[in-house]
């Protein structure tokens, strides 16, 4: 149950960051809903967050490939990352990347 709620919540936050979703809702006469959702989902400093650098290659994959391919790529990349640090501690930047990959796989 918790994982379903988490997925729906994350999806809602990501949808408010999608210009296409916001345009669709606005064009269907609900500007106030878009503004309210964006205001509640906005994360301070998100546009400068370090995780955005890790996301860039996956955006390109999603543009050019299928969602199934993206999921497989995420799994392979996360496995490779974890294999690299199998016997040693991950530095904080790698922990952040690993967490991002985990979240993307869940979505």
Ranges where pLDDT stays below 50 over 5 or more residues in a row are: none
Total domain units = 2
Distance between the termini: 15 Å
Number of E-state strands: 0
What structural class do you assign from the helix and strand content?
A: mainly alpha
Specify the biggest β-sheet: none
Beta-strand residue fraction? under 5%
Mean pLDDT: 76
- Please, how many helices? 6
Instruction: Categorize the overall geometry.
Output: elongated
The amount of helix comes to: over 70%
Order of helices and strands: HHHHHH
Gyration radius (Cα, Å) is 16 Å
Describe the structure.
With 107 residues, the chain is an all-alpha fold. The protein folds into two domains: 1-42, no CATH class; 48-107. Helix content is 77%, strand content 0%. It is built from six helices and no strands. The protein has helices at 2-16, 19-27, 31-41, 51-64, 67-84, 92-106. α2 runs antiparallel to α3 (31-41) and α5 packs antiparallel against α6 (92-106). The longest helix is centred in the C-terminal third of the chain and has 18 residues, at 67-84. It is elongated. The mean pLDDT is 76.
């Amino acid at each position: 149950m918790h994982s379903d709620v988490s997925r729906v919540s994350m999806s809602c936050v990501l949808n408010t960051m999608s210009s296409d979703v916001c345009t669709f809702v606005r064009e269907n006469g609900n500007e106030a809903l878009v503004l309210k959702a964006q205001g509640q989902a906005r994360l301070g400093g998100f546009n400068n967050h370090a995780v955005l650098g890790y996301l860039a290659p996956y955006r390109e994959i999603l543009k050019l490939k299928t969602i199934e391919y993206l999921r497989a790529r995420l799994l392979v990349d996360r496995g490779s990352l974890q294999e690299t640090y199998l016997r040693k501690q991950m530095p904080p930047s790698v922990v952040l990347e690993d967490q991002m990959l985990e979240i993307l796989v869940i979505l």
